[in-house]
Design goal:
Low-confidence stretches: none
Strand content: under 5%
Mean pLDDT: 95
Number of helices: 15
Helix content: 55-70%
Number of strands: 0
Shape: globular
Radius of gyration: 21 Å
Distance between the termini: 23 Å
Structural class: mainly alpha
Order of helices and strands: HHHHHHHHHHHHHHH
């Protein structure tokens, strides 16, 4: 127990109780229209903001504002910003990807027209000058100039982001954060294994996209890449990820995506047993982001008149 977090843990527990549960999510899915689905949020914490939304097609504005409020709460509650800022840095790396891909276009767009997400630690318009990213930017630029493949920008920056996450977590000696990021890396690599095989990518390409720093070694993935799929699934059944790959066995890549998301959610649910600590704050951040993704899936489906059962099949689990 980290006594520094006693007060904020109390606040988080109160907020957790107000997260959307399975019944509320099901009512939104079963609603007869997008408008009726959105109205289900009127008696929740989203209520005051739902009433201000004039056009349901602009629901992304509501979700974006909720994310801003979430990160503001996390910033105020965190006594370990070097760790919680890592979650904001995902947006810095997204913005750097956007900036570099635009920079190398034949006709680059002006910065104000780029799809930046202003939730990172760096002003998106200043991303090129950010000292903490200069070396990473230089490395990415050199690789692209050699290959001329925009996909290399994504590959390098994804690897650099997770390298930084594991490095910072290890420096802080925070076991929960270390384990969390390693699990994220493992799950990404597992999904990449099956995607690359489905796209018939060769072993060299797969080796190139693998992210280091997870608990499952690069050697393990490469050993099974050219073997029967069942051999790799059997190998994973003896690891902590046995449950995570069950979705693939049932529904292929789509099922794998959902089961991996649910696996990570189950992992953070263990923080409900912690009396006080940074883990509780991080778990709430992930749980709330998961909820926002759920709402995006439902409202997008409703606006596009996708049948309720199809929406239901694509749903992640809830935290409560």
């Amino acid at each position: 127990m980290d006594t520094r977090y006693v007060y904020i843990t109390g606040r988080v527990r109160a907020l957790e109780a107000r997260l959307l549960d399975k019944l509320k999510i099901e009512r939104m899915v079963a609603a007869t229209s997008a408008k009726a689905s959105l109205s289900e949020l009127e008696e929740t914490d989203y209520g005051p903001y739902v009433s201000q939304l004039k056009d349901i097609n602009n629901f992304e504005d509501l979700l974006y504002d909720e994310l801003k409020r979430l990160y503001s709460f996390i910033d105020k509650g965190s006594l370990d910003r070097e760790l919680t800022d890592l979650f904001r840095m995902r947006y810095d790396f997204h913005n750097l990807k956007v900036f570099l891909k635009n920079k190398f276009k034949a006709k680059p767009l002006p910065l104000e027209k780029l799809p930046f997400i202003d939730l990172g630690t760096i002003d998106p318009k200043e991303i090129e000058k950010a000292e903490e990213l200069l070396e990473i930017q230089k490395k990415t630029t050199e690789t692209f100039e050699e290959s001329k493949n925009p996909q290399d920008i994504d590959i390098i920056l994804d690897k650099e982001y997770y390298r930084l996450c594991v490095e910072k977590a290890e420096e802080a000696e925070n076991g929960f954060a270390i384990d969390l990021f390693r699990k994220e890396i493992d799950l990404i690599n597992i999904k990449m294994f099956f995607r690359c095989r489905a796209l018939k990518r060769d072993k060299d390409f797969f080796s190139k996209v693998l992210i280091g720093g997870g608990s499952l070694t690069k050697r393990l993935f490469l050993e099974f890449y050219e073997k029967e799929e069942s051999a790799f699934l059997r190998k994973l059944s003896f690891t902590p990820y046995a449950k995570a790959v069950m979705g693939y066995e049932k529904e292929g890549l789509r099922g794998l995506e959902l089961s991996c998301d649910n696996f990570l959610l189950e992992y953070i649910k263990k923080t409900k047993l912690i009396t006080a600590g940074l883990e509780v704050l991080i778990a709430y951040l992930i749980a709330k982001e998961n909820e926002i993704k759920l709402l995006r899936s439902i409202l997008t489906g409703k606006i596009n008149e996708i049948p309720a059962q199809m929406i239901r099949e694509r749903m992640r689990d809830t935290f409560i």
